[in-house]
Amino acid sequence: MKPPEQPLPPKDETTVLHLGKFAHGHEAPASDEGATMFIRRAATATVAQSATPVVVPKTAGELSPEEMLGAMAYCYAKGVFSSSDIERKMLQDEGFREALGGVVPDPATIRRFRRLNREAIHSVLEQFYRRLRKIQPTAEVLPGTTPPEAAPAAGRAAKNPMEDTVVAVRREATDRLDKATFIDGMSGD
Fold it and tell me: What is the pTM of this model?
């Protein structure tokens, strides 16, 4: 965990995250159907329904399993993969930082959470990408993803379009988690 007096990085980055919506004390309006609130609700449902408990390392501070799971899945969905970048984004978000008393999880804690809860993160990402495909069935492929037509066909043509969706959604969630793991492994943190 980082002390609150740590200097904040510049705000000229292009990826804007709304992590404050994942912190305790933030009321989620029922009418909000945006990606951020969808991921928050998916994380809450995943924690409640998971056969395996979502474990938050003690070094994560005051974050609940729902909050940490939601924030992590949200970062991955938005293309922020490095644990150091996630920590920086958490520090930059004033609402998130203030709700946690200025203490956010450090990169080692973020990596540990990912290792302990890979299945839960995967589940939330799958729910998000399934919803995204329903809302925008012809949407452009998200940055850092494999276009469906470029994916291997495994020697057969799919007979069921829903099967294509299920496979693509799983692949997208897996790709996001694998990319985060790879980037963290390359950074040597």
Answer: 0.77
